[in-house]
Task: structure prediction
Amino acid sequence: MWVSKLQLENFRNFTALQVDLLPGTNIIHGDNANGKTNFIEALCFCATGKSIRANHDKELINFNAEESHLQAVVCLDDYWDLGGNYQNIAGFSENLGYVDKIGENVDNLAEFGGIGNVENGQNREISQNAEKSQNMGKTAENAKNPKNFAENLETAEKSQNMGKFAENAENPKNFMENAKIAEKSQNTGKFAENAENPQNFVENVEILGNNMKNRETSQTVQKRRIDVHLFRDGKKKGFAIDHIPLKKLSELFGSMLVVVFTPENLQIVKGGPAERRAFVDLEICQLNGVYYHALRQYYQALRQRNNLLKSIAKDRKLRETLEIWDVPLCENGAVIMAHRAAFIDELGALATELHAAITGGKERLNMTYKPQIIGGIDEYHDRLKRNTERDIILGSTSAGIQKDDILFKIDGTDARTYASQGQQRTAALAVKLAEIALIKQRTRRKPILLLDDVISELDEHRQNFLFRNIGELQTVITCTGVEDVLRKVSGNIIRVENGRFYGKKRG
Result:
């Protein structure tokens, strides 16, 4: 997936902004304090409903306004999501699993069925090359009759790779390739009329080609519009997808998948447990609405329990009501622990592989989930009971998922304590790349990568590894020096100054 447009009104330092983004790399550059990170924050907020910096939503609203509106248009492009090579005929089979060079060198229409002259000089039937095509069954039967040209093209409509019409239109020898790339046309009405005359071959091709000039109007590109409304006066923030209001925030998750990489993320190994929990919670929420619901219910109950603990210190009779909040803590806590354990197992396995690739196999990274309470609901309940007196004294709950942590080890040694800064950054990079891989595995979609001023924090080797592994994603990079980034990757260049975006060109 990729974002084609972001529109902001009274968000941070943007009073009114509309930016068109492209698939691939978008480089936003400018001096500090001009709005680059605000732009990244807006994209992330549209995806998650949460700020990557602010504790309160009202902090996101422009000082001179009472409300703010964000709008993102997300493209769910099957071509892009399946491999990023939607314009590459040669990558057709690899990306889609359909037909690969099924008859690239066919010399005449009669050989359309595949009993012809193919590149390797051997005769092959079309069925051998089209095993995953969904609607090619009648091709061989119709191939020997040019009158069935229209039917052949109709049965080829499940193919998903268009692009070389102009080049092939004048040459009937490319009939086979044109048929393959003719899949998603919406205007085949004149095929029947033209089918009996092979001279109308070019006209048929043009009918298809004209419908594919704009890729975004193709049936393969689905768009969804995400709207966010923020209010300063305490009103509940509002979300809508395709103009339909969402009843709860969990309905937003998954509609726009993002991976955010900031300089602060480089501290995920060295920082405190709260930072690591926040990282894990954000990513699981994007992938699982059940997790978000359990997390929300848990922290609502936790706040109520902590308030009650403070009241019990003044009135011991209230202790009998503590069980009211212990139950939701135990039930939701057990759900959260199970999801965290599964997520970290999957993420850790991917991070270990990527870390080995970055280091050339010289070091081994391991991630381990460290829950404070080991077990399920019963163990959770027992721990709360044992800690009751202590909790009353402290005025807060001392045990639970709010105390969980993730342990990073490099070659069996605690990376937080003993790893060098370079080793910690390598581990953080591996984790972020693993996050991308995990989202792709679970959703079969490619997330949008947001790199906020992080390139300058990585050395040459890590920069090269990062760019080699993100080429298939839409990436939004913010930086101060665009020249340094352009040495690594070309992209759509946008300059930002005082909350305004200028000049868009291909670098």
In short: Residues 78-147, 149-192, 207-219 have pLDDT under 50 and may be disordered. The two ends are 22 Å apart (CA to CA).
